[in-house]
Amino acid sequence: MSRLIVISNRVSVPKTENASGAQGGLAVALGAALREHRGIWFGWSGQETDSFTGHLDLQRQHGVTTATIDLESQDIDEYYNGYANRTLWPLFHHRVDLTEYERSFGEGYERVNGRFADSVAPLIEPGDLVWVHDYHLLPLGKFLQDRGIRNRIGLFLHIPWPPTRLFVSLPFHERLVEHMLHYDVIGFQSEEWHESFCHYVEKELGGRVAADGGTIEWQGRSIVTRAFPIGIDYAEFVEAGATEVAHRAHDRLRASADGKKVIIGVDRLDYSKGLVERFDSYHRFLTDHPEAAKDVVLLQIAPPSREDVHTYQDIRNTLERSAGHINGAHADIDWVPIRYVNQGYSRAELAGFYRAARVGLVTPLRDGMNLVAKEYVAAQDPDDPGVLILSRFAGAALQLPDALLVNPHSSEEVGEAIATALAMPKEERIRRWQGMIGSVRDEDVIAWRDDFVAALSGPAARAAA
Ligand code: ADQ
């Protein structure tokens, strides 16, 4: 079995396989793959240094070898807070209005990708498979090849790929994609993002997409591109939901709701998650359905993220105002319509909260996949499941057509979906849940990882296996 070299912006090895920990499924799945493949996980330590030395901090953590580097504050500003989170993230989530272009961001991005390449290249041995993750590191494959690396290198993009007409607003867009066309495999979350990428390559770079719909021919190179929809660590999540911690969280939420139906939202505090629009929709529901309103409470859990970027400070302020306004307009002495919580919870607590909620409200304006939707489905009681309301603009919508699919920009539509979900008879809730659980269980993070690693191993390796 080939060794696996995983490269991502940050390294996050799960402490144990303990289901009640706070780790996400991605870290657990990659951690397990790295243990099986005897691999290395390389990335930024999250630490700042006065002057970049390239010093590699090698550690053996819970059966996985990690290698991290520290970055200078200018690197962090330009590469991470700048190009990754102020240029690519908003643009790839269709927020051209929030997209900031500064030449120094692009330069910092390439400089740090070069530093990543310099630091990780000496760790790569012939025969290793190199798996790069996400929008922080789009040019890394090319930069590794420039340093003599001849291994197979794949990229998985966790976020959407924008339509061509948006993407061309990025200065030097050709250069970014030409760098990407040095990977052997490029994976996307959904067919929609994959098609947008192929469209761009054909239209703007004159590449050719083969009849199989995925193999790109460009300047004598052949790149396999495909959708590899990511899933949750289903077994881990179900185990987390069976713990004492989960039961206590479930009972605590139910008791505090005092017989009212709970609607739950769980998101990083990010404008792409549609939280402001969600609060507006809930407001609309409360106004249009006063008879149902007093029997409902919305629990929105949203831990802050990327607080060094000003748009994230803005969204936090806007949401606080909105929650205050809605509560001010509708609350009574014994009822507050929105509980807005800014903290993180363990996997087990989240599983308990999801199970206690009659409605899962997942309404991103644009989302590569969205794992919360799948976690909500996985956590339900099969005999009395809740209803998932899901944005049609999340990658997950393609796999979960039995959710109530909504346009998150329409407060009227989402408000009506809330009313429909709350009134839905048990038979229909069970039927819809049964239509979703198979995909959530079988198309899990382990299947995703194995599928990508098989594609990266290449046809020759697969035939010999
Ligand atoms: P994210 O944008 O971070 O991921 P998402 O897929 O929803 O979005 O995953 C968030 C994860 O964080 C979930 O596992 C969730 O349970 C957890 N989480 C959120 N709030 C939490 C809280 N308060 N406490 C504890 N855990 C919390 C990016 C892309 C997505 C894509 C993933 C994986 O933006 O589209 O699905 O990567 O590829």
TrEMBL record:
Tell me the InterPro entries matching this sequence: Glyco_trans_20
An example GO biological process term is: trehalose biosynthetic process
Task: Please name the GO terms that the record assigns under molecular function.
Answer: alpha,alpha-trehalose-phosphate synthase (UDP-forming) activity
EC code: 2.4.1.15
Enzyme class, one word?
transferase
Matching entries from Pfam families are given as: Glyco_transf_20 (PF00982)
CDD domains, alphabetically? Answer: GT20_TPS (cd03788)
> What are the UniProt keywords, alphabetically?
Glycosyltransferase, Transferase
Q: Which PANTHER family match?
A: BCDNA.GH08860, TREHALOSE-6-PHOSPHATE SYNTHASE
Q: Which family does it belong to?
A: Belongs to the glycosyltransferase 20 family.
Its protein name is Trehalose 6-phosphate synthase
Q: Which organism is it from?
A: Sphingosinicella soli
